[in-house]
Amino acid sequence: MTPTLVRQHSSHAGATPRVDLRARARDWSEIQERMLVPLYEAVYERLDVDGGTRMLGLGCGSGLALLMAAARGAVVTGVDSRCPEHLALARRRLLPEVPAAWDTRACEDARIVEGSPRDARDPSRSAFTLVTAFDPIGCLAGDAEGLGESLAEAMPLAGRGAAVVLAGWGPPERCATTAVLRVATKLADPMRGAGSWRPALRDDLEEVAQRAGLRPDGSGRVACPFGYADAESAVRGLLSTGLFDAAIAATDREQVDKELTEALHPHQRPDGTVWMPNVFRYLIARVP
Q1: Which top-level group of life is the source organism from (predicted)?
Q2: Is 258 left (phi over 0), alpha (psi -120 to 50) or beta?
Q3: pLDDT-based confidence at 82, cuts 50/70/90?
Q4: Strand partners, 180
Q5: Which has the closest alpha carbon to 40: 75, 80, 70, 85?
Q6: 216 φ, ψ to 5°?
Q7: CB within 8 A of 217, min separation 6: which ones?
């Protein structure tokens, strides 16, 4: 739905489908990544992200959320271990020259770290005041457990009272993309387990926060429609998330493309564009 939906997730068991990772990263950054911009904006506005914010982005991918925070003056660090191609895009976005209207000091201080959250430790820097996990959970079996592990490593890097933001898919009945994602379940080998798509559960975020020992401090819902120029772009964007990797491994790319295109048909407008309204949730918690 990263969505990222919305970021590339790797397959966890069995054969991994062979894909052009550079092309997938390009499709992610050019087509799919922007779908969660309303979520990023809502969180940053609510938390007053500005020049006093030191942000750690878990699962930062190609860095759009980091870039938006840096544009508000925040000093950002992104960490990810899944896709070097995505991190290469993040580095090109955050580490080169930036528009003069932005706080260039913030981008000069930006860090992109390949590895786990513990690799983002820097004794010369102040503790993080904000930790974000924008890669929405509630779409892959085992994704909540993986986020819990990342949080356990990240919490020692955050100051007391720091905000931790978790994101997830909203109720399936409020997400038009849910019906399309079911193609992944239909085609995937049911024995694969982790790595297969699953519907979001109401308390996904709260359960992760509780297990991490975080104190809930507010939540919200944000409309994040998925809009595409045409069905071909929609298929490329959705495949770039990695949510269909298990289905591709169990069948083949041609079959998945075919069934995805059919599932998208009800959401295609007369002009050929594809529009799927969705709602995403976020939970704000605090480090005790």
Answers
A1: Bacteria
A2: alpha
A3: confident
A4: none
A5: 70
A6: -60, 140
A7: 163, 284, 285, 286
- Which residue segments constitute the domains of the chain, with CATH numbers given? 21-286 (3.40.50.150)
Query: What is the rounded distance in angstroms from the CA atom of residue 216 to the CA atom of residue 209?
Result: 7
Task: State in Å, rounded, how far the first CA of the chain is from the last one.
Answer: 30
The pLDDT score that the predictor gives to residue 14 is 44
Whether 287 and 158 have beta carbons less than 8 Å apart is answered as yes
**C-alpha torsion sign, points 186, 192, 193, 194:** negative
Give the predicted TM-score (pTM) of the model: 0.87
Does residue 260 carry a pLDDT above 90? yes
CA 133 to chain CA mean position, Å: 7
How many CA within 13 A on the CB side of residue 250? 22
Pair 186, 119: CB distance under 8 Å: no
Dist CA 130 CA 53 (whole Å): 7
Residue-wise DSSP of the chain:
---BTBS-----SSPPPP--HHHHHHHIIIIIGGGGHHHHHHHHHHTT-STT-EEEEET-TT-HHHHHHHHTT-EEEEEESS-HHHHHHHHHHHSS---TTS-HHHHHT-EEEES-GGGG--TTSPPEEEEEEEEEESSBTTHHHHHHHHHHHHGGGEEEEEEEEEEEE--GGG-THHHHHHHHHHHS-GGG-TTSB----TTHHHHHHHHTT-EEEEEEEEE--EEESSHHHHHHHHHTTTTTHHHHHHS-HHHHHHHHHHHHGGGB-TTS-EEE--EEEEEEEE--
- Tens-place pLDDT, residues 143-196: 778 888 999 999 999 999 999 999 999 988 999 999 898 888 888 765 454 445
Give CA angle at 9 (140, 186), nearest 5°: 45
